[in-house]
Specification:
307 residues, Indigoidine synthase fold, eleven-stranded mixed beta sheet, globular
Length: 307
């Protein structure tokens, strides 16, 4: 970390608004950019990104959307850079293995949860808001397809606020993986792991908290005790925005089958599956996706202020 501090200016641009907040101890929340470049169609992606930043500012928290543009690691984007991430077709979905390649070759990269965690750590930001965390894919017993998000979370002191696992994943195996690596999963006003598009998954959580302040206290205590690694905050989609469980499960099952037939796997899986689900639900899944991201941002802001 010390060596990167020396080289930070060589690789990273911290937006003045973010830098001032970090220097003065104001709350800052990191936001990922894969949801902008690969998770939603234009212009909904740009509208959602702007809405998330506005929610944070309205609550006294500084937004720090992360990305890689022309090889520069960005912590906080200008309006022009947000527009670029939302419209450019020349943006690589970048996980840990891609990070140095994209930076070294002056390329453009959308930060996944994994690389947003890396970027937030390098910048000194302790909380990240996303839509859903990556996890263990269905059929991973054969494919070994497990998102890097989980390992990055396990090894980094950061709190990640999400609406649970994307329901295209194997939620039970994802929770087992997190338990193995000692990552506490804190349910916000829920006893169950939410399933992204729906509030319930049938998988019980060990810890429930009913206020952001209580959550922040638990997170802070973990790190003060020297228990290194991240914390996952599971925040269910609002009931009025949730999808019908049978409808979404049928759409997911069909999408998973299509992916198998077409040989789609790895980092291409999630965009493909979400796109198929969007088609199958007539666009309803996109509206649910937007609602849960905004909901997560509101909770992330309150936790950040308490931290």
């Amino acid at each position: 970390m010390k060596s990167f501090e020396i080289l930070k200016d060589k690789y990273m641009d911290i937006h003045p608004e973010v830098k001032e907040a970090l220097d003065s101890g104001k709350p800052v929340v990191a936001l990922e950019s894969t949801i902008i470049s690969h998770g939603m169609p234009y212009p909904k992606n740009l509208e959602t990104a702007k809405a998330c930043e506005e929610i944070l500012r309205e609550t006294g928290v500084v937004p720090a959307t992360t990305a890689i543009i022309n090889g520069r690691i960005k912590v906080g984007l200008t309006a022009e850079e947000l527009e670029f991430m939302a419209t450019s077709k020349d943006v690589i979905k970048s996980s840990r293995r891609d990070y140095a390649h994209v930076v070294a070759n002056g390329l453009n990269g959308a930060t996944t949860v994994a690389t947003s965690i890396i970027t937030a750590r390098l910048a000194g930001i302790p909380i990240l808001v996303t839509g859903g965390i990556g996890g263990v894919h269905r059929g991973a017993q054969e494919t070994f397809d497990i998102s890097r998000d989980l390992q990055e979370l396990a090894g980094t002191d950061i709190a990640v606020v999400c609406a649970g696992c994307k329901s295209i994943l194997d939620i039970g195996l994802t929770l087992e993986y997190l338990e193995t690596f000692g990552v506490p999963v804190l349910g916000y006003k829920t006893d169950e792991m939410p399933a992204f598009f729906t509030q319930k998954s049938g998988h019980k959580l060990d810890y429930r908290y009913d206020s952001p302040e209580e959550m922040a206290k638990s997170i802070r205590t973990k790190w003060e005790l020297g228990l290194e690694g991240g914390v996952l905050v599971a925040n269910p989609i609002p009931k009025e925005d949730a999808m019908d469980e049978e409808v979404i499960e049928k759409a997911i099952a069909e999408a998973v089958e299509d992916a198998k037939k077409q040989g789609i796997h790895g980092k291409e899986s999630t965009p493909f599956l979400l796109s198929r689900v969007l088609e199958a639900t007539g666009g309803d899944s996109l509206e649910s996706n937007i609602a849960l991201v905004l909901n997560n941002t509101r909770l992330g802001a309150e936790i950040a202020k308490s931290l």
